[in-house]
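Help wanted!
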Amino acid sequence: MLEYKTFELGNLTLQHGATLRGARLAYQTYGELAPDRGNAILYPTWYSGRHWDNEWLIGPGMTLDPGRYFIIVPNMLGNGLSSSPSNTPPPYDRARFPRVTVYDNVAAQHRLVTEKFGIERLALVTGWSMGAGQTYQWAVSHPEMVPRIAPFCGSSRTSTHNRVFLEGVKAALTADATFAGGWYAHPPVTGLRAAARVYAGWGFSQAFYWRHLYEELGYSSLEDFLVGFWEGFFLDDRDANNLLTMLWTWQNADVGQTPGFGGDTVAALGSIKARALVMPAEKDLYFPPEDEEWAVRHIPDAELRVIPGVWGHFAGHGSNPEDTRFIDAALRELMSL
Amino acid sequence: MLEYKTFELGNLTLQHGATLRGARLAYQTYGELAPDRGNAILYPTWYSGRHWDNEWLIGPGMTLDPGRYFIIVPNMLGNGLSSSPSNTPPPYDRARFPRVTVYDNVAAQHRLVTEKFGIERLALVTGWSMGAGQTYQWAVSHPEMVPRIAPFCGSSRTSTHNRVFLEGVKAALTADATFAGGWYAHPPVTGLRAAARVYAGWGFSQAFYWRHLYEELGYSSLEDFLVGFWEGFFLDDRDANNLLTMLWTWQNADVGQTPGFGGDTVAALGSIKARALVMPAEKDLYFPPEDEEWAVRHIPDAELRVIPGVWGHFAGHGSNPEDTRFIDAALRELMSL
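Answered by r_m:
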């Protein structure tokens, strides 16, 4: 659903020093909070995703069943619904929007969960891509609140290669002079379309394209997929400064940057108390399974379960029923523990 | 060596219809042609490479020993030395430079080899990346002339995913308004730098970046590698129209488009008479080994030999001594057959 609720954060002091005054967290909930407040699941959004983009994994008969659980989907800061460059009044508007970390996102979400709903313990935190990053951060920031995590197609620390991939996206977007350092009078459409084309090669695997699986998504040709899916994706109410805010969040994600860990990612992973079911996708080009093997080695109670197949990163996007069934079944197993 | 020779092609009629008048093929040779003309090796260049960029695989004691073989390195059309947008006089100059196929390149090289040197049979054709594509094309265009081919980190047909990767590079380059549809007054430096950053994620593997192997290449940080290596690469006398000409050649490469095969890549591969030693790199992100497994299945006398390790596509660039030794040893084995 497109509707959402807003939690007023007031003054949100960010990890890198700015205070976002009148900050807001947009969110949506599915199901009813049980009287003992023990059935809440947190399911953060991904890069440019909105709460409604998470709904494919929620529904009657699925593990995330609103008949059983109270599912909270907080929108990431910068996504255009929560406080973002596009909706923040001066002076922190547009190109002046401050740097936001994954830690900051989780701090804001923690206030929603505790202050608004009085929840002391979440049954599960799960998420795709940057949502997986927020999932890891929850387990590090609030280990006592998180008994289970299921990050899929994401990481606890953005790898060097992943940062490079994002440099390409950023460089393409900002090569458009219309961008004007973020003070654009009109959307930098050429840059957005270029960023989309850069992203296209990364989002799905080589094998996905080899088999022309975009045809299964309803696209008649490769160019139809590049324009219809990818350019459409980046033009669908995506603001350039918003995209760059979230891109910075992503490039700089690292649970080791949680206060108290001094940059030690391994120590941060070691502090996780949750049972972790970690699900990279077999052919994910920017969150490859090898990176998650590394993370799992450092989490006390973790299992690596690779999503098989050729959909690459978008295995976790809800587009391929087989991958959705895999993720849903894994979540069911985790919730039964 | 920076010096080169020029073969005058005269009127070069291209596969897509234009005639390039006064076309030139720039080339360099290493070693002496034997009296029986039986010791010639052809070693075409790669995307934006020049003949001197191939010299890492040539030398005394190596398989491509100028003391034994006569090694011809023809520069690809569009690379700035052979006929290119940047050096062709009007009316086919700059943005009007015609579309050139891999077939066209090989046709021009065939004239050099036969008309200039009177060679009837090449001992070997080998090449990296787009050079591998030209290698395959030689074996299809002139099967009787080519007893051995060793394409490494390339393909006989550009895969759909590979085309998408290149779309991202192209979109980043042309997002710079300075490009002006190819009629730029000054080099589109922002676009070239953006294209370089897009390329950076593809050229080396995730594991290469994970291990910070760019430090072995002499770069002090990731940003130093992105600017010093990648942006420097794209600014090193690389002309934007030249890059786009070669990019079109690459995106449209397919031995099945050889006249007589009617687009049937499998039939074209089946017509190869050469002994083929096909060497993809284990973690090449745009020429993955799976694609070359497919090609090898359709070539009558072919072996797949994967270059192990984490250097990705740049395993074939001469930067990593271990990969260079692997390729050199494989070539030695092939030449002994």
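OP: Thanks! One thing I noticed: Chain B has two domains: 5-159+252-335, 162-246.
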